[in-house]
Records
---
Amino acid sequence: MSYLSNGAWWWPYLFILLAGFAATDVWRFLGVYLGGKLSEDSDLLVLVRTMATALVAAVIGNLIVFPGGALAHTPLALRIVAVALGFVAYLASGKRMVVGIATAELLLLAGLYLNF
Amino acid sequence: MERPYAAFGAVASPGRACYGRHMSTWPPDSTAPRSTWFLSGAGAAFSLPGLILISSFVGFAALAKDAGVTATQAAFMTGTVWALPSMVVLVGAVASGTALPAAMFAVTLSAIRLMPMVMALVPEMRTGKTRQHVLYLLSHFVAVTSWVLAMERLKRVPPSMRTTYYAGVGGTLVTTNIIVVTVVYAVADALPSAVSAALLMLTPMYFLTSLWGSARERVGHVAMVLGLVLGPLFHILLPRIDLLAAGLVGGMVAYGWHLWRRKA
């Protein structure tokens, strides 16, 4: 039942339609349906937003601590330092995403080329 | 809603060029035809947030390729799912061999945030004449970048042209990034490993900064910090349901903090 477990050519597409398309568009359609009916700051929506935020943050944490591919061969400490300083640069620059992302990337590349 | 736009149009028509923050034709004349508004929306897709999004799709393609997803499947995923956090969760499920029901549940939870975003956007676009199915179709384009662009710029678009403008923004973003994903698949093998590592770093950095910036209340930041720590922790303790557990536990603890603070 996993993505790569079935050899049929259509299986990955069905997997994407059910676990990807249906799972995301149900919320978009519900948003259109409810648009204007539910208050933006209702308590239920606050809880829904915090759970969704924590889940996506967990994805970020895993991508940094347990990455795949070429990033998996880099030292954990280098990744964490690059991300942390990149985030500090983002905050210090008045929340400019470009600054944060570029800082983290440059530190990672510098660390790799200097063999940290 | 109509008044700020009307005032802006009146001031802008004599010397429009001086208002050209993004391009000299922004916003187009209020009497401009529908196609002009569509193209204007398409142009907005190549603004700074749009370019940052392209770079994160470069990162996503590297991630998906690494997980064993083919180029066609990744392009299909980009068009049908169109929400990078959900796509990254889906690819994570592919990589760890998660069964369909569990993958669906995790992606569903990751996509909940789209609902309040759509709820906030719909009143901006709807006029008395807007047909409901147009809104359902356009809602598929809602994801962080197009939403941020729309919430910032729709106010300056005439109400009757807003759905057209948003179709231009969303359609262009989706099409462009499907092409980006396909191109990255074609060239990825030729890249040096340090560059591949840097590409894989784009996605977490993009989410880290955009999620922090889009949090509406302090409680969003609390939930984020909890998720960042709980994700890797549950990855070790509960590897099969790590994301779900981190989302539910982190979200409820943050919500508890929110209630406690409001009472104090």
---
Amino acid sequence: MSERNGQKASSEDGGSKKSKIDLNRLEMPKQAPEVRRRNFDEVATGYTYEMAMEEAKRCIQCKKRNCQQGCPVNIDIPDFIRLLQKGDIEGASRVLKAKTSLPGICGRVCPQEQQCEHACTLNKKGAPIAIGRLERFIADWERGEGIISMAQIAPTSLKQVAVVGSGPSGLTVASDLAIRGHRVTMFEALHVAGGVLMYGIPEFRLPKEIVQREVDYVASLGVEIRLDTVIGINYSLDELLRSRYQAVYLATGAGLPMFLGVPGENLNLVYSANEFLTRTNLMKAYLYPEYATPVKMGGRVAIIGGGNVAMDSARCAVRLGASEVSVIYRRTRDEMPARLEEVENAEEEGIRFYFLCAPTAFIGDGRNNVAAMELIRMRLGEPDSSGRRRPVPIPGSDYVMEVDTVVVSLGTTPNPLISSTTPDLKTSRRGTVLVDDRGRTSKARVWAGGDIVSGGATVISAMGEGRRAASAMHQFLSE
Amino acid sequence: MFSIIAHEELAPRVHRMRVRAPVVAAKAKPGQFIILIIDEKGERVPFTLSGWDEDAGLVDFVYIEVGKTTRRLAALKVGDEVAHFVGPLGRPAEIGRFGNVVAVVSGYGIAAMVPVLRSMKEQGNHVTTILQTPDRERLFGEADLQLFSDRIIPVIEPNGEEVTGSVTRSLRRLLANSAREPIHRVVAMASLCIMRVVSEITRPFAVKTMVHLTPLMVDGTGMCGACRLSVNGNNRFACVHGPEFDAHAVDGWEVMMARRCTYADESVLQQGFQCRGCSQW
């Protein structure tokens, strides 16, 4: 099942006599599937001290730092592992904090298998160092010990920057610029900071306490966070630029959810993934009625889509008590955009996958609740612009599947609030903000990054774009 | 935190709350709404603005006690605070020099329509307001409407079953007379069922009719899609594309009304203002 990337731990090589290299990549303990299906606690429980030491010791400290080059925010990976090997966890944390303010988050949600761990020399033997797990261990250890190692903050520049949006990209720019001595105000439309880390990624993958702790860390660098403030409404972009801010970073995130556009899609209990996840994660519907926001769901839940957000929705549905959760994806397993690890987790939790099919209509129960959906089978045709083979409907292959709740997870289109009130901000036809390779927009003194630029990608790529833009902004502010 | 500056009961279970929120007051326009959260465990609930004072930094809105959150809200006193308060959200109501404007209001709309009518009057429109209320005891806000209406037609209907019928009669009478006194625009801020009936009555007369829709919302800034509805066959979000829509372009009222009731069983405690057995008034 998992041979696609060929990068799973292959501990059987570990006893090889020819090499002193330890290929026993240490697995992280996880809650058993039958247990975790019933709670929202974190699935992976993290390395113990002993486990972290054992895993760190496997690092051979290559001269050529492939892992560091594989990291979108350029963390000095061999250095923090070397300090870990010596048992200096505080020192390791300082190395991390020099390049990321969000180690507890990155350690959990980065696709390391495509980045640092992919580049790791030991990956040639199929057993890369578990860099993400070590990063997470350091962040969690610090939290457990109550120690907060701070990055060195430069003397104040007297320059002021507005960061719009407090998700991973905004947090990265805010902390990078604060560390360089600039005064940063970060605006957030919702009632808590964190963006997708709060409303989107579920508690069992990324505990909200961890997110808030890292948001607090960014605030402790001197970043002022203004919640409940919508840029494009309360202040236009031009108003920000006319007031005390010399530069603005736009990181407003994903935006409006997309739908299939098929009949019956607005029936009751057809949710967008954004709504389903926002209710569940941000508003904590799984703790209803202690928390006032409910999420209504029937027993048979179908998730439409094959990305990470679809996996999160499916796994939330299981934990909320669904009896049967199905993922409907129009291509095959090989084309699924979700991380392999998340797909495997979902499978272990009893979620069923139906490939090569797509809904063509939703059918009501006579009282405007969804009761079933019509699907059509697909086959794979020629590759499309994304390089993946295009799904082609097979005529006459329609069938009906009974469902009580549907969660549509097809991605998003950018929120028009800022672009519609800022005529000189150039956007693509899809509405994403256009930037150069350092995040600069068409509008003077304005940079942008994250999903408002990409249209929808990962936490770490949003952070990487933030890192690049922050250095360009710092250069501009220093001129 | 956002302080409550004034809080009064206008009629049984109908309250007006005034909150200090200068950032909201600075940009408020007729027909826009706010979202508030009482405390960190609270839900996000939208309310249409019924007035604001930019200089004093105050905004107010009128709400009806129908569920858990509005009941908790009703228990708050002057000097108490709500944790979060964001707005003004949504697009402002369309204001212009139309000529003869007929407003249809019920419930919270009796107060929330006032800023719309003030602007309509400023533009030189002649305003007729049909004000629906279930009984005399629950009649409120007439004086405020009077300030910006040339004529008020109160429809006091004790029997909930008849509500839509009586609004219908008043509006039909005005339309029947439209050869002599043309109606250039109808704007409604009332229960969904009244607005639906209003849109069906004006359709044959081709009188442009704007309705202020109140689907369920979660974030209220375009992110979640809970408030989507079909307008001319396209998905529109009430929070960013509305809440005011051209009633004759709205399709799928049935589904919209059903979606409005998704959580009625969980959160609505009492069936106060009923219309054909629907608790969402």
